[in-house]
C-alpha cells in the first residue's frame, strides 16, 4: 500500500490497537508538534497543543486543517461528506493553550516538540514534572539530544522516553521509540502500544546520538553540504543525483530546507560541542550564513532554495 494506504489501514486499525493513553499534551506547535497533534487526533485521542502565543497556535491549526483536508480527500475520495466529517472531528479533538502547566493537569502523555535546545527543554520539563499527574509519561521528540540528558532534571525518569517522529508527521510512517537509562519496561511498552495506536510503525532504539535514522542521515547530509561548499556540484545537481541515483524522495539539500535550517544548526552545534574532535560536525559557514539571515528553509520561504509563500 502507498503511504496513504498505510494511513488508511493504520487509521482504520488504530482503534484495534488499544492504548492506555487517551489524553495527550503536545508542547510546541511548530513543524513537528502540529503534525504529532494531528495524527494523535486523527486516531481519536484528545489533544492539547501548547505553544508560546496564540498567533503561533493559529498558524499550527491552519497547517493541521490543510493537512487534514489533503488526507480526507485521499481516504474518502468517493464520499466527500464523510471526508469533511473526518477532518472536522479530528480538528475538534485538538484544543490549544499557551499555559503548559495547566495543559498537563489531566493528561496521560506529554510529548515535547519545542526548540532543539537542552536548556529550554530542561526548563520546560522541570516545570511540568511538578504539575502533571504521577502516572503521566513524558517523551521528547528531540532529533539529536540524549534522552538521559533531557530527563536528568525530572523525578519521573522511569516514565520518560523518546518518541522521535519524522517530517512530515502525517505522511512518514516511522516512529523511533527510545529508552532512557531508567525507562521501565511498562513505560516502554506503553509508548510502543501508543505509537501503534496512532498508526505508526515503531522501531526501538537505545539512547544513542541520533538514534537510528539521524545517526545515518547526519553524515550523509553533512557530506552533501561540504560537496556544495567545495563547489564540487550545485545544490540542484546534488539533489537530482540522490533522487535519481539513490531513489530518495528528496535530495539532501532540499531535505535540509524542509526540516528547517535552524533545527539543523541546533543539531550540528550540539554535536560539535559534544564531539569537538569529530570533523564531520565542524560548523558549516554556508549553513550559519543562511540562518543568520533568517533564511530557515521552507518555513520562512527561503533557505538554500526559494519557495512560494503559502
Ligand atoms: C552535519 C552537518 C549537516 C547536517 C547536520 C544535521 C542534519 C540534521 C538532519 C536531520 C534534521 C532533523 C531530522 C529529524 O529528526 C528526522 C526527520 O524528520 S528526517 C526527514 C524525514 N523525511 C523525509 O525524508 C521526507 C522525504 N520527502 C518525502 O517523503 C516527500 O518529498 C514528501 C515530503 C512526502 C512530499 O512528497 P512529494 O511527492 O514530493 O510532494 P506531494 O506534495 O505530492 O506529496 C506527496 C503525497 O504526500 C501528501 N502529503 C505531503 N505532505 C503532506 C502533509 N503535510 N499532510 C498530508 N499529506 C501530505 C500529498 O498529499 C501527496 O499525496 P498523494 O497525492 O501522493 O496521495
Ligand atoms: N524539523 C524536523 O524535521 C524534525 C523532525 C523530528 C524531530 N524534530 C525535533 O522536534 C523538535 C521541534 O522541531 P520543529 O522542527 O518542530 O521546530 P519548530 O521551530 O518548527 O517548532 C518549535 C516550536 O516550539 C515552540 N516553543 C519553543 N519553546 C517553547 C516553550 N518553552 N514552550 C512552548 N513552546 C515552545 C516554538 O514557538 C515553535 O513553535 C526539535 O527538538 C527537533 O529536533 C524536528
Automatic annotation (TrEMBL):
<dbReference type="Pfam" id="PF02737">
    <property type="entry name" value="3HCDH_N"/>
</dbReference>
<feature type="domain" description="3-hydroxyacyl-CoA dehydrogenase NAD binding">
    <location>
        <begin position="23"/>
        <end position="208"/>
    </location>
</feature>
<dbReference type="InterPro" id="IPR008927">
    <property type="entry name" value="6-PGluconate_DH-like_C_sf"/>
</dbReference>
<keyword id="KW-0443">Lipid metabolism</keyword>
<feature type="binding site">
    <location>
        <position position="121"/>
    </location>
    <ligand>
        <name>NAD(+)</name>
    </ligand>
</feature>
<keyword id="KW-0379">Hydroxylation</keyword>
<dbReference type="GO" id="GO:0007283">
    <property type="term" value="P:spermatogenesis"/>
</dbReference>
<dbReference type="GO" id="GO:0030154">
    <property type="term" value="P:cell differentiation"/>
</dbReference>
<keyword id="KW-0496">Mitochondrion</keyword>
<dbReference type="InterPro" id="IPR013328">
    <property type="entry name" value="6PGD_dom2"/>
</dbReference>
<keyword id="KW-0560">Oxidoreductase</keyword>
<feature type="domain" description="3-hydroxyacyl-CoA dehydrogenase C-terminal">
    <location>
        <begin position="210"/>
        <end position="307"/>
    </location>
</feature>
<feature type="binding site">
    <location>
        <position position="74"/>
    </location>
    <ligand>
        <name>CoA</name>
    </ligand>
</feature>
<comment type="pathway">
    <text>Lipid metabolism; fatty acid beta-oxidation.</text>
</comment>
<comment type="subunit">
    <text>Homodimer. Interacts with GLUD1; this interaction inhibits the activation of glutamate dehydrogenase 1 (GLUD1).</text>
</comment>
<feature type="site" description="Important for catalytic activity">
    <location>
        <position position="164"/>
    </location>
</feature>
<keyword id="KW-0007">Acetylation</keyword>
<comment type="function">
    <text>Mitochondrial fatty acid beta-oxidation enzyme that catalyzes the third step of the beta-oxidation cycle for medium and short-chain 3-hydroxy fatty acyl-CoAs (C4 to C10). Plays a role in the control of insulin secretion by inhibiting the activation of glutamate dehydrogenase 1 (GLUD1), an enzyme that has an important role in regulating amino acid-induced insulin secretion. Plays a role in the maintenance of normal spermatogenesis through the reduction of fatty acid accumulation in the testes.</text>
</comment>
<comment type="similarity">
    <text>Belongs to the 3-hydroxyacyl-CoA dehydrogenase family.</text>
</comment>
<dbReference type="GO" id="GO:0070403">
    <property type="term" value="F:NAD+ binding"/>
</dbReference>
<keyword id="KW-0809">Transit peptide</keyword>
<dbReference type="InterPro" id="IPR052242">
    <property type="entry name" value="Mito_3-hydroxyacyl-CoA_DH"/>
</dbReference>
<keyword id="KW-0744">Spermatogenesis</keyword>
<feature type="binding site">
    <location>
        <position position="51"/>
    </location>
    <ligand>
        <name>NAD(+)</name>
    </ligand>
</feature>
<feature type="binding site">
    <location>
        <position position="143"/>
    </location>
    <ligand>
        <name>CoA</name>
    </ligand>
</feature>
<feature type="binding site">
    <location>
        <begin position="28"/>
        <end position="33"/>
    </location>
    <ligand>
        <name>NAD(+)</name>
    </ligand>
</feature>
<dbReference type="InterPro" id="IPR036291">
    <property type="entry name" value="NAD(P)-bd_dom_sf"/>
</dbReference>
<dbReference type="GO" id="GO:0006635">
    <property type="term" value="P:fatty acid beta-oxidation"/>
</dbReference>
<dbReference type="GO" id="GO:0005759">
    <property type="term" value="C:mitochondrial matrix"/>
</dbReference>
<feature type="binding site">
    <location>
        <position position="167"/>
    </location>
    <ligand>
        <name>NAD(+)</name>
    </ligand>
</feature>
<feature type="binding site">
    <location>
        <position position="67"/>
    </location>
    <ligand>
        <name>CoA</name>
    </ligand>
</feature>
<protein>
    <recommendedName>
        <fullName>Hydroxyacyl-coenzyme A dehydrogenase, mitochondrial</fullName>
        <ecNumber>1.1.1.35</ecNumber>
    </recommendedName>
</protein>
<feature type="binding site">
    <location>
        <position position="299"/>
    </location>
    <ligand>
        <name>NAD(+)</name>
    </ligand>
</feature>
<dbReference type="InterPro" id="IPR006176">
    <property type="entry name" value="3-OHacyl-CoA_DH_NAD-bd"/>
</dbReference>
<keyword id="KW-0276">Fatty acid metabolism</keyword>
<keyword id="KW-0221">Differentiation</keyword>
<dbReference type="InterPro" id="IPR006108">
    <property type="entry name" value="3HC_DH_C"/>
</dbReference>
<dbReference type="Pfam" id="PF00725">
    <property type="entry name" value="3HCDH"/>
</dbReference>
<keyword id="KW-0520">NAD</keyword>
<dbReference type="GO" id="GO:0003857">
    <property type="term" value="F:(3S)-3-hydroxyacyl-CoA dehydrogenase (NAD+) activity"/>
</dbReference>
<dbReference type="InterPro" id="IPR006180">
    <property type="entry name" value="3-OHacyl-CoA_DH_CS"/>
</dbReference>
<feature type="binding site">
    <location>
        <position position="116"/>
    </location>
    <ligand>
        <name>NAD(+)</name>
    </ligand>
</feature>
